[in-house]
Amino acid sequence: MSSILTNNSATAALSALRSINTNLNETQNRISSGLKVASSKDNAAFFSISESLKSDSGMFNAINDSLTLTKNSISTARLGAETVVDLVNQFSERVAFAQGGSASVRESVQNELDELAERISTTISQSTFNGTDLVNSTSAVTVVTGIARSSGGSISTTTISFNQQDLGAIQSALAAIDLTTSSTTALLAADLQTVTTQLTSATDAATSLGIAEKSIETQQTFLTELTDRIDSSVGSIVDANLEKEAARLQSLQVQQQLASQSLSIANQAPQNILSLFQ
Length: 278
Prior knowledge:
The chain is mainly alpha-helical. The chain is built from six helices and four strands. The protein has two domains: 42-136 and 166-239, CATH 1.20.1330.10; 243-270. The protein is 72% helix and 8% strand.
């Protein structure tokens, strides 16, 4: 039955065209933005997950940057400790040379020792990075290395700790040695033992700082790879498949043309009724 009041064909064609236009706009938005989930209205669950992951990635990157400063501070302190080890080795060689020597020999060697002690002091004072001094104390240092997110969404931090190294105490013990007053074999042997003890302490300090630096370096490598994995996961959740969207765009454009022609034909149907009255 034909009617000039209700055109069911035109209504159906219009509904189909409206649906096609909606899908076409959605596809064009995905292509232009590169995202299939650009806001929470696109997919609330995926949007929530992706935003949480983006937040974690940002925090990991910030912590990684902070670890770079810490690693540089430790590296500078380690360099200072290793330099002190070299200087204490020279110190021990000169003390060993003075064993059993005459007073004039001990005096000449003492001048060398004073110069070495001053070089050790200078090295220690220069072994700081951006104002951070890790070579004049034995206090523990705690460094934040990352975050941990529980299944309930709460966040806690992960940390590692290392001890500062008191190279100043080593320098003080060496500077206190005075071969000019060590007139006996026993006193000279005691001086040599003191140097040997301080050499062990300097070596232990350099080793401890090296272990701490390596730990920070390993953690940074892990954080870099972790953030790459998180970013990749976010991309798989929210990024549009442009090959798929391009094919869909072509299909929808054809559908839009056909729906427009169908609507045009349906709108001409009431005109055909006039021929019945001619």
